Request: fold
Amino acid sequence: MAKSFSNRYIFIYSAALVVVAALILTVVSVSLKPMQTKNQQAEAKQMILKTIGVEATRENADKLYAENITEDELCDKGYIYYSYKDGVIIPLHGTGLWGPIWGYLALDGNGTVVGAVFDHKGETPGLGGEIATDKFAQRFIGKKFSGQPIVLKKNADKDNYYEVDAISGGTMTSNGVTAMLEDAFERYGSLKALTIEKEEDEQ
Amino acid sequence: MKNFDLIKLPFSKENPILVQVLGVCSCLAVTAQLKPAVVMALSVTVVVVLANVIVSLLRNTIPPRIRIIVQLVVVSTLVVLVDQVLKAYVYDVSKQLSVFVGLIITNCIVMGRLEAFAMVQKPWASFLDGLGNGIGYSVILIVLGFVRELFGSGTLWGYPVMEKLGLYSIGYENNGLMIMPPMALILVGLIIWWHRSKNKDLCE
Reply:
């Protein structure tokens, strides 16, 4: 420790260190990228399939996806959605407490939610991160995506089509999900596939 | 210090969380469930061991004036590596841990061991020291994860233990406080209390 170092040494040392670190990271990042991208794409397909009750593994996601989901289409407002045999699947995008959250809702011809799945980039594990669990997603089944947006709240009324129980300890994330659903409702609320029987719901 | 002590002491009298009270913030954040706690424990152990060895190897070349920066570069590189590897090979787990992997960089245990030990000790001793501290941290994390998930959510590793035991039907309720971070702090406090009562010499 008593050794003294010249300024020149310090500059060269730090520059060399940073370059070496950058090189290592670049090599690793480039070589692992294909695997990571594959994971992400397969995951998106898995999520979409899950909303209609098809459990896919990372390996057979491509095949099952091709079998179950028909072409993605654009709605009148220019947003993408997917179709399956009984209805449509709409993608959701929003922000939670720490970063992006997203998900998919599968709807039947009446606009009733038949399946949901959510995920997040960086919500707190065990709290807001719980939106990624099946337990949370199942709360959406049977709710209505027509007439008005679904909201998350404490002690939600189970029989109310537009209320879902929020996550305890994850209020900010829950608020994010509510905002995301509102947003999605604005985008897709007027989908033809959903509006046909909309009047029924408004009684 | 004997080599065996380097591994053993962090378990008992020099536990990073219980005695040095380092790394507490991640220990509050990721222990609401067992699985993230275990993966976090493993990741921190890997990072602290490797960082200790690398810094120990470089210790005679590191100019003291920029030593913290050098340590940070080493730690960040390792953490980004761990993160990338997790994303490629155990994608689901990496998603569960999300931000906390990145936050290993700021875990005081890592920097603390580098400053206090690896900068002045040989690589093998540093390796053992890193391992001991990593395990000492892991044990507490896993204990917390176990207790909090069991009593907070009624599950273990996602398996519904309480439901299978039929406790809900006789009026058992999950303790919502368990999944809140303050409860982790209270539990750590209780463990420290127990730990000090066993090791009287640690009391001031």
Q: What stands out?
A: Chain B has ten helices and no strands. The mean pLDDT of chain B is 85.
